[in-house]
From TrEMBL:
Gene3D superfamilies documented for this protein: Hmd, C-terminal helical subdomain, NAD(P)-binding Rossmann-like Domain
Protein name: H(2)-dependent methylenetetrahydromethanopterin dehydrogenase-related protein
Lineage: superkingdom: Archaea
Pfam families in the cross-refs: HMD (PF03201)
Classification of source organism: Archaea, Methanobacteriati, Methanobacteriota, Methanomada group, Methanococci
Amino acid sequence: MKISIYGAGNQKFYIEELKLQEKLGGEPPFGGGAMAIEFARAGHDVVLSEPNRDVMDEELWRKIEEAGVKVVRDDTEAAKHGEIHLITRTFSENTIKSIKNILQHIPKDSVIAICDSTPVIMIYSNVERELRFMRKDVGLVSMCPNAIPGTGMYSRYVIGHKSLDGEEYSTEEQFNRCVDLVKSINREVVIKPIDLVPLITGLSTHITTVTLSGILNYYRMKSLMTEDGEKISEREVLYVLQTISAILETSSIRGLIKALDVDLLIENAKASKLLDEQEDLEAAIHVLSNLSKEFSREVEKCEVKPISVVASQALVEEIRRTVGGAAADGVINRCKKKFLT
């Protein structure tokens, strides 16, 4: 297959700052560079686009090129090549611009695979016009490695193209093309709804893991206090998460911290540590107790904006019931775009 990869990975950051070899094993190049080598060695025709050659030394570039990878500096050149387009760059303000540029040049029926934990639904909502009116033939897939490619822990890809509400972002053929690509390098394929992939891959797993741990320990305490602990806990957890989400959406992370009053939160959290299993709570208290002075000053300057705390899925269903049809879909889709604005 013809494969285009966008982003070789900042090897100096991986090696010197993160020290990936010491922590996770493997050998450089890591990230997009490692993927390019692996796919080329499996017999695929691979083009790697990286405008900044300074992300790694020449010895690593030679290693990539000797594997049979064609290295280019222009995304447009890479876009004209592939039938599968792998976006490995960390999400930034330029990501949507880059994808819109790629869409102008990629061959018919191509599929774009997002290989970091950026939600495909967020990306789709911001390139929907291009995909619906100019490139209906192009599909979007989430295709995230379980660890940084090239490291010792890298062993599988989590792939999705259907959302939990049944919406498909690619055809079955385009999705299976990505599955076949992963199988061709003898990596495991795990298929999940496209909404869930960002929650269980990449750096976002930190948020998911810590949150889920706190919820489960909270359930454990509630079950000791009442027979209906789990049912009651679900309602309380829902309220806490929705409120945090609403403040974060309107007032940023600094506004959230100001609204919660960290000192008061820490004091009350210490009083709620009743079980030996609550090690996650201890870790959280440690983090909150060691916010930098500069960050704390920024928090004090932040404005906390008004919010309406509602159960989000209940609101979606109410909109569909009362508004209905294309109008309801339009409202919901416009709200999805708010993840990036």
